[in-house]
């Protein structure tokens, strides 16, 4: 029994000075296990912190304006908070300074256009809904206690329903959706709180004044301290998309004949995925004042049409890329016979797209774009002329059945190449569509004549 007890209570001795401490072996195992868990948790925390630092550095290096935006939000909140901290300012706004803080939080956006859109929508909606709420409350108060309740509740039901339904209209959804939401919120607050508050007009005035203070500070900081213009971002995005189309077109055609995929061959995906961003930037740019080379009435909506024309071109390039990555390929000998014409067509089309990008970027008309478009059309005609030469010609002295069999076999082998060349031959028409939309933009925006910028 004593031997069994010794086995079950095996101990490890730790000598500390004059003391000898005996610890069960099971406890040491538990301590080591817990120490391992703590160490692994600590290492995992360090790894996450390091990954977070890398992400912060990447975001800041990719677009330093985002760092500036964060400081601008902090500055704006610090300024508007003074109306709550300083007693003279606090007394001046009637103790409703928190509404100014809330306004800054909800309307301050990355771009100046976004801040203007939300700020002006909020100001108009707050003023309209507040005035309407006070007016209905005054009218309802003349109808007695029961009548007041019916009128106020009915007004909330009718206006909330009508304004909510109006948000489904495309024009209102695009330009005034935020304002419609704020209108419903403000009217309900005024109508409902007015039922229990005696000085409703004073309350409405105080809230309106603090909301206007928050909006004014947001607009001043957003537009005067390193402003980020949605219009400028849209302009650069459109020019960059044209360059990406050119790189993607050349990469897809060269890769098809070389058997190697170029790094920039998938640039068309960025163009196809940019529609939502384009639409958002167009809507925000309309709210912005004139800045830089863009006038107050700059034709931002034309950028949407130009972007749609570029996406039509990107769809063709996507089909070309699909031929490049397909497992079914034409014989290399057939590809070689058509490679020169196809490479010439892609090169001319890419030049036209890059010229389009330069015209957009410089806001200048082009001397060579029309000529480049003509060259792409000629190159497309050359590709179409060479397609029938891929098939063997008939010979009267050779057995007809043998010739037919040979032609059918060649046709099957040539089908992937014919499909690729046929899609490529459609590119000039798509590029011409881009050039036409660019010409409309140049007319509406008043682009400078070719060479005028250099002469000035």
Automatic annotation (TrEMBL):
Source organism superkingdom: Eukaryota
GO CC, alphabetical: membrane
Keywords attached to this entry: Ion channel, Ion transport, Membrane, Transmembrane, Transmembrane helix, Transport
One of the GO biological process terms: monoatomic ion transmembrane transport
Annotated Pfam families: ALMT
InterPro entries per record: ALMT
This protein's record includes keyword Transmembrane helix: yes
Record's subcellular location: Membrane
Membrane-topology descriptor: Multi-pass membrane protein
Transmembrane region(s): 67-86, 92-111, 123-140, 146-166, 178-196, 208-230
Chief site of localization: membrane
Family: Belongs to the aromatic acid exporter (TC 2.A.85) family.
Protein name as it appears in the record: Aluminum-activated malate transporter 10
Native organism: Apostasia shenzhenica
Gene: ALMT10
């Amino acid at each position: 029994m004593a031997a069994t007890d010794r086995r079950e209570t095996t101990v490890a001795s730790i000598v500390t000075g004059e003391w000898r401490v005996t610890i069960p072996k099971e406890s040491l195992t538990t301590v080591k296990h817990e120490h391992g868990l703590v160490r692994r948790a600590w290492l995992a925390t360090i790894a996450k912190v390091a990954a977070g630092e890398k992400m912060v550095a990447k975001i800041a290096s990719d677009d330093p304006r985002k760092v500036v935006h964060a400081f601008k939000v902090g500055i704006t909140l610090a300024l508007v908070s003074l109306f709550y901290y300083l007693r003279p300012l606090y007394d001046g706004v009637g103790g409703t300074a928190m509404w100014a803080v809330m306004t800054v939080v909800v309307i301050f956006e990355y771009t100046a256009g976004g801040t203007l859109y939300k700020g002006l929508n909020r100001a108009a909606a707050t003023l309209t809904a507040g005035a309407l709420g006070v007016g209905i409350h005054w009218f309802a108060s003349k109808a007695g206690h029961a009548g007041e309740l019916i009128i106020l509740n009915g007004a909330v039901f009718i206006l909330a329903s009508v304004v909510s339904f109006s948000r489904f209209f495309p024009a209102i959804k695009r330009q005034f959706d935020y304002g419609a939401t704020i209108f419903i919120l403000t009217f309900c607050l005024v109508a409902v709180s007015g039922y229990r508050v005696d000085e409703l007009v004073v309350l409405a005035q105080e809230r309106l004044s603090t909301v206007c203070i928050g909006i004014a500070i947001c607009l001043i900081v957003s537009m005067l301290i390193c402003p980020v213009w949605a219009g400028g971002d849209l302009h650069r995005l459109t020019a960059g998309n044209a360059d990406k189309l050119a790189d993607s077109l050349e990469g897809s055609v060269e890769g098809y004949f070389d058997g190697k995929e170029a790094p920039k061959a998938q640039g068309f995906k960025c163009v196809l995925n940019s529609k939502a961003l384009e639409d958002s930037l167009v809507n925000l740019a309309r709210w912005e004042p004139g800045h830089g080379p863009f006038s107050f009435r700059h034709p931002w909506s034309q950028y949407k049409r130009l972007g749609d024309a570029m996406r039509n071109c990107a769809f063709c390039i996507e089909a070309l890329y699909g031929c490049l990555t397909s497992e079914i390929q034409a014989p290399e000998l057939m590809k070689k016979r058509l490679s020169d014409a196809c490479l010439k067509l892609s090169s001319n089309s890419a030049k036209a797209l890059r010229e389009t990008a330069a015209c957009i970027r410089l806001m200048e008309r082009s001397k060579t774009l029309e000529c480049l478009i003509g060259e792409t059309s000629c190159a497309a005609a050359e590709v179409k002329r060479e397609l029938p030469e891929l098939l063997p010609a008939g010979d009267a002295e050779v057995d007809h059945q043998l010739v037919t069999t040979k032609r059918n076999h060649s046709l099957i082998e040539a089908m992937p190449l014919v499909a690729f060349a046929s899609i490529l031959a459609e590119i000039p028409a798509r590029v011409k569509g881009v050039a036409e939309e660019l010409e409309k933009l140049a007319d509406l925006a008043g682009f400078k004549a070719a060479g005028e910028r250099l002469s000035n």
